[in-house]
Amino acid sequence: MRVAAIPVGPAGHDPHRLWRQVEAGVSAAAAAGAGLAILPELTVLPYVAGEDPARWRHPAEPSDGPTARRMGALARHNGLALVFGLALSEPGENLPRNAALLAQADGSLIQIAAKHRLPPPLPGDRFGEADHFRPGPAEAQAVRVGFPGGGSLRVAGLVCYDRRFRQAWDTASAGADLVAVLVAGPAPQDPPGFFAAELAGHARRCRVAAVAASRYGTEHGLGRPVRHDGDSLVVGPDGCVLAALRPDAPAPVIGSLPDSVRLSPPAT
User: Could you count the other beta carbons within 10 Å of the beta carbon of residue 16?
Assistant: First the structure.
């Protein structure tokens, strides 16, 4: 079973640029035989946590809005499941959630996670993620994803900062074979290699595969640089990195999962 992490970025004033990257990456992943592809946090939006939230309400959409519909159509067209990030608006709520949705290969959509822990403002910033989003539930929902040619995995999601916490991994991995990690934003405190080591350590401890898709590059669209520090990689349940992004040539990261990843019993 092949899976893909699709990096995109950096975001700018033209959202169509990110969409072109998404569509090209998903097409390449499907052509390489991937049955599941992961996209970054807030996939086609810039990282605006430090900005005035009053200016950034408009990108939030319902679960059946234009971004979700387009992602569902993309999954259906390419015949693979797709996990993507969305600023998810919900009736009666003032703030959206920073959510991860899964589009199955038939185009159907389901929310699998929403960011539960919202990091504080970065040094020098007036605003942080809690000014833009409300927390999601602590629980992560695992959804079974079928792969071309047979076989399936139960997939759960973690959105960016939640990956820092052992409890979040314990909750997600309890019902899953694979944890999708959607990442964007700066982590200037991390030394080189920390992200991959962190992901590999949690995957090995929890005995799940992990696929991280991160925004890459430095964004300048907000009048100041925002550097993305995450990696895109595929990790097996033994903690071994099966595939990782080449920084000099951003492209879908595709890995073949070992048979040992299939830890859950088949659906009855």
Answer: 8
For 10-24, 27-41, 215-229, which range has the lowest pLDDT when averaged over its residues?
215-229
Span 164-190, mean pLDDT?
A: 94
Of 265, 262, 251, 166, the C-alpha closest to 209 is: 262
Question: Angle at Cα 138 formed by Cα 135 and Cα 140, nearest 5°?
Answer: 115
What whole-number distance in Å separates Cα of residue 38 and Cα of residue 259? Answer: 20
The confidence score (pLDDT) of residue 200 equals 97
Angle subtended by helix axes 166-173 and 194-206, to nearest 10: 50
Separation between Cα atoms, residue 234 and residue 241, nearest integer Å: 6
Fold designation for 2-261? Nitrilase/N-carbamoyl-D-aminoacid amidohydrolase (3.60.110)
Full-model pTM: 0.94
| H or E element that contains 23 | helix 15-31
Instruction: Report the candidate in 164, 118, 111, 178 with the shortest Cα–Cα distance to residue 139.
Output: 111
51: left (phi over 0), alpha (psi -120 to 50) or beta: beta
Taking a C-beta distance cutoff of 8 angstroms, is the pair 228, 47 a contact?
Answer: yes
Average pLDDT over residues 71-92: 97
Mean pLDDT of all residues belonging to the chain: 91
Residues contacting residue 170 through CB under 8 Å, at least 6 positions apart: 206
Calculate what percentage of the chain has a pLDDT beyond 70: 96
What is Dmax (Cα atoms) for the chain? 54
